Amino acid sequence: MKGVDICGIRYNCYIIRAYLGYYLRITDLKDASNLTLCDLHHSCVGEHYVGHINDSIYIIKENSYRRVTNLTTDTGRDCKPIHSNYHNGDYYFSVKGKFYIVFKDQKIYKTTSKLTSPDCQEYPLNDDYSDGLYYWGRSFHFYIMSMTDNWGVQFIKASDFSSGNKEWFNSVHKDILDFLPGGLSLTTGPTVGTWERVRALKNDTNEPISFKESIKRKVGYNKETVTKITHNWNVKLSAKVKVNELAMLIANAQLSLDTEYGGSFLKVEKENGMKRRKKK
C-alpha cells in the first residue's frame, strides 16, 4: 500500500502513514514502552521510505527520491532522480549501505549502492521472503512483517536476503498494529454491517397503496473504543490536533479499506465520524 511504510535507522523504526500526515517512532515492534507520535512534514509525503546507514531517510515518490535526516522538519533535504532500473519496485529497503528493491510479480530483487546508478545485481526472490507486507532494514539486518495463518501478524529478522533463513521471529504489539492499515480489524475485529427487515404489506386490490417506514442506519464507530488506540503513545506534535481526533482519522481510514484488510470499503471522506450515530 503506497504511502504506508516502515523504515529503520540505527535504534529507531519509523512507521509512516503519509496521507494521514503522521508517523510513529518506535524502538521495538514487540514492545509498546517507547512509542512517539510525530508530525510528518508536508514535503515528506511519499510512496516508499528507506532508512540508510548514513542516518538519512530516502523518500521515494514516482521516479525520484528526497533524502532527509528528519521527517518532521525536512532537514538535510536533497532530491535526485532514480535510475530506471529501480522504477516501480514493490518494496524498497537498505541494509549495510546497499539498497534492495523487491519486484514481487517478477519474483526478483535488485541491489545497488546508489539509486541514481545503473549498476546493480539481480537475484531471484526467495519464496520464504515473498509474502511480506512490509520490508525494512536497520544497519546490518533486515526485517519482514507478514500475516501468518495461525499466529496473526509476525515479523522476522535476518541478515542474508538470498538464503531464506530467519534469525528469529516475533509478534507485533497491539498498540503498533493499531497504527497500521488493517490493524484495527485484528485488534478490535472487522467492521461489519447489518440488515434490518422491512415490513411487508399485502395488497389484494387493484389500487396501488403506499407506505413509509424509517430505517435506522448506524455509521461511524464507538468513540470510547476508538480513543483507546492512542493510549500508550507519547505525543510530539507541532500541529494543533488532538490525539483522539487522530484516532478517529485512523478509524475512518480503516472503514474505507477493502474487506481484505478488515474494512467495509466505505467512502467516509464526507462523514465527520466523531461518534457512532443513527441516520434515517
Proportion in β-strands: 25-35%
Q: End-to-end span in angstroms? A: 35 Å
Structural classification = mainly beta
How many E strands? 19
How is the main sheet built? 5 strands, mixed
Low-confidence stretches: 191-198, 217-233, 253-280
Number of helices: 4
Q: For this structure, what is the CATH homologous superfamily of the largest domain?
A: Hemopexin-like domain
- CATH class membership of the largest domain: Mainly Beta
Q: What share of the residues lie within helices?
A: under 10%
**Mean pLDDT level:** 77
Order of helices and strands: EEEEEEEEEEEEEEEEHHEHEHE
- Our Rg estimate from Cα atoms comes to 22 Å
How are the strands of the largest sheet arranged?
1-2-3-4-18
Which fold name is given in CATH as the topology of the largest domain?
Hemopexin
Describe the structure.
By secondary structure, the chain is mainly beta. The chain has two domains: 4-180, Hemopexin; 198-232 and 243-279, no CATH class. 10% of the residues lie in helices and 33% in strands. The protein has four helices and 19 strands. The chain is globular and about 80 Å long. Mean pLDDT is 77; it is low at 191-198, 217-233 and 253-280.
